[in-house]
Write a structure and sequence with these properties.
The protein is of the alpha+beta class and about 400 residues long. The protein is built from ten helices and 19 strands.
Length: about 400
């Protein structure tokens, strides 16, 4: 926790110290722009949540000098498979992609945030915690940010610009009057990190289709705790904290068969999934990034990745404007990044709806189409390219 008093003025206030907020702060620090990074939590993430880092994000992190460090703490996975029971419908490999990082990196979000925070501190930045934003007013050529600190004391800080990277329930977005258009999936999602015996090789992320719902199983780094996996699954009504028995039932019902033995649930949660995109990425001197700007199904593991890429694009634009370039430079942010988010939301929505088909005729037709289409090398390559987000360059 940073207990240093906040300055009264700064160039940029960033709200939210998740991956998008931290990345924005790093880019500003590298450009010599003064900023204040506020977060409502007393400490950073200590649960894994997002766990996939795609090739395009690693390219972005390479530009910040931290890709190698994150890779050293993660686990390289080269293959994505789609299965229905014991049958493999599609195998998509990343090792032929035109990138220095032809793979998916499994790295829990708390690890990613730790690496980003270390990099921020090396650049001279820090996170101020806990600060709850209560009001944002864009007026008189600047923005006034009102807040309450951890003791309940109120204060305000004046900035040229504010970046809302404060998640799906963004206070910044609400204060700026920006709509968040979309809907909510009817199912709830189970999210769990488990230790288990799993019959599929640990170099694969697997998407399991079944009439009961979609399930994703991905290996996690296991240097100290062997056989760790991430399990994400749709269920009608998820328990608040899924247990070993809950996860075992899901995998026995939907998995590939064979020896599945869930030994421990290390962390678990439930959540509802929305597919929404902010109507605008900018309202005057207020801008949005990460989950404040877009949320979608976890199918494909692209949420955190898209947010980091948002921030890496936005930060240098802000630095240019603060250093004297026209304010219209910031318009490039929305015209470039919002179409990317719309594409990701549409792609993951199609994946989710395809994976959760229930009528038998529709499932048979789906399985046949997947098998035929992914037998074509160009289709497999395009799918790998899209999952890796390389089209977002």
């Amino acid at each position: 926790m940073n207990t240093t008093p906040l300055p009264e003025t700064t160039s940029v206030v960033i709200v939210g110290a998740g991956p998008a907020g931290l990345t924005t702060a790093i880019t500003l620090a590298d450009a010599g722009i003064d900023f204040v990074l506020l977060d409502r939590l007393a400490e950073g993430a200590n649960t894994s949540r997002a766990a996939v880092v795609h090739a395009r994000t690693l390219e972005v992190l390479e530009g910040l000098g931290i890709a190698d460090e994150l890779i050293s703490r993660g686990m390289v996975v080269s293959t994505f498979t789609v299965r229905d029971g014991g049958r493999t419908l599609a195998t998509v490999r990343f090792d032929g992609l035109p990138t220095e990082y032809p793979y998916t990196l499994m790295a829990p979000q708390d690890t990613t945030e730790a690496v980003l925070l270390e990099r921020l501190r090396k650049a001279g930045g820090e996170v101020y915690r806990p600060y709850e934003i209560t009001r944002i007013v864009d007026e008189n050529g600047g923005v006034t940010v009102e807040y309450t600190d951890g003791t309940g004391a109120r204060g305000r800080i004046r900035a040229d610009y504010v970046v809302g990277a404060d998640g799906m329930h963004s206070v910044v977005r609400e204060q700026a009057g920006i709509g968040f258009t979309g809907a909510t999936y009817p199912e709830s999602f189970v999210l769990a990190d488990v230790r288990m015996d799993w019959p599929i090789a640990r170099n694969e992320v697997t998407l399991h289709l079944s009439p009961e719902g979609v399930t994703v199983v991905a290996p996690l780094p296991d240097d100290t705790e062997p056989n760790r996996y991430r399990v994400v699954a749709t269920v009608a009504e998820a328990p608040e904290h899924p247990t070993v028995e809950d996860i075992r039932t899901i995998l026995d019902t939907r998995g590939p068969g064979g020896a599945v033995q869930v030994r421990e649930v290390q962390w678990s949660s439930r959540f509802r999934v929305h597919h929404r995109v902010a109507d605008r990425y900018r309202a005057g001197r207020v801008l949005l990034a990460g989950d404040a700007a877009h949320v979608h199904s976890p199918a494909g593991g692209q949420g955190m990745n898209t947010g980091i890429q948002d921030a890496a694009f936005l930060g240098p634009l802000l630095a240019r404007v603060v250093n004297g370039e026209p304010d219209t430079v910031l318009d490039t942010y929305e015209t470039t990044r919002r179409p990317v988010a719309l594409g990701v939301v549409a792609f993951t929505d199609r994946m989710t709806k395809m994976a959760t088909l229930r009528p038998l005729p529709a499932r048979l037709a789906r399985n046949t189409a997947i098998s035929i289409l992914t037998s074509i090398p160009a289709v497999r390559t395009k799918l790998a390219y899209q999952l890796a987000e390389l089209a977002n360059r």
